[in-house]
Write a structure and sequence with these properties.
Layout: E1 3-7, E2 12-16, H1 27-33, E3 38-42, H2 45-48, H3 63-73, E4 78-83, H4 85-96, E5 101-107, H5 114-122, H6 125-128, H7 132-139, E6 143-144, H8 147-155, H9 165-175, E7 176-178, E8 184-186, H10 190-198, H11 204-209, E9 214-219, H12 227-236, E10 241-245, H13 252-255, H14 257-268
Parallel strand pairs: 2-3, 2-4, 4-5, 5-9, 9-10
Antiparallel strand pairs: 1-3, 6-8, 7-8
């Protein structure tokens, strides 16, 4: 299976990346962790089969890939962390196969209420393209003449305002590839990004039955994990550990990589 090996020696730690953020985007987070862990990161289906998006139905289809990767490339039970979609898929996998995991760190997972996921599940495909976040993904620029041009474009984007230049360059290097015509295009196709948004699951039942020791991290300014979601999570799992990172949003592992890496190291230490 395709994956990025960040190297290191010690307990095995798998990190699951977010929608549209390939593994290399998290270099500043994962390289420090590789000082004391063997760190790897699976390539989700969009990076492996860029043209497969019309056949993708839901995030549950990613679970068998993660199980296969852990069983074939690692030595379970392992430590596991994930961001956004990666956090949700990791958690759903742990709910089904707790034997594969020692502990989980879930960073700003997408825990939408049923009133938002059910309409997406029932709506015809032509309606889903009208959902603002799906439409925005489909309409985002898909080609630049150089990586410098891609960096300049993303540097102006509001979503990357709290991300430093070094982390943004990591994202550009990981998130673009040569297009064959002298330019650069998205490594994680925008059609896939939109498909992931349009198939977001109702993950609360899986979270409720997940029994693996858990650390929850959110950016205090995150629109993905607002206060009601954060409170509901804490009522559901009072035994878990919770951490707010101030002056950070949904992209907290790119905005505050050192702080997140320290939190993961401290949390995982008793389980190593």
């Amino acid at each position: 299976m395709q994956f990025t090996d960040f190297g290191g020696r010690g307990p095995e730690l798998h990190f699951a990346h977010a929608n549209a953020y390939p593994p290399g985007s998290y270099r500043q987070l994962l390289e420090p962790l590789a000082a004391s862990h063997r760190v790897s990161c699976i390539h989700w289906l969009p990076l492996v089969k860029p043209d497969h998006h019309p056949h993708f139905r839901n995030w549950h289809e990613l679970i068998p890939d993660l199980v296969e990767f852990i069983e074939s490339e690692l030595h379970p039970p392992i430590l596991a962390a994930g961001h956004s979609m990666g956090a949700v898929v990791t958690m759903m996998t742990a709910a089904r196969r707790p034997d594969l995991f020692r502990a989980l760190a879930l960073i700003d997972p997408v825990l939408l209420p049923l009133k938002k996921t059910l309409p997406l599940r029932l709506a015809p495909e032509r309606w889903k393209t009208r959902v603002p976040i799906v439409r925005k993904a489909l309409n985002r620029p898909n080609r630049w003449d150089s990586r410098e041009a891609a960096f300049a474009f993303h540097r102006r984007a509001r979503a990357f305002a709290r991300i430093g230049d070094e982390a943004l360059w990591d994202y550009i290097r990981a998130g673009t590839r040569e297009s064959g015509d002298g330019g650069f295009t998205l490594a994680f196709p925008r059609e896939w990004e939109a498909k992931i948004y349009a198939t977001c699951p109702w993950a609360w039942p899986d979270l409720k039955r997940c029994s693996v020791p858990m650390l929850a991290i959110r950016g205090a300014l995150s629109e993905v994990v607002p206060d009601p979601t954060w409170s509901r999570w804490q009522r559901m799992h009072p035994e878990a550990q919770y951490m707010d990172i101030h002056d950070a949003g949904h992209l907290v592992p790119l905005q505050r990589p050192g702080e997140v890496a320290s939190a993961l190291s401290d949390f995982f230490a008793p389980y190593e």
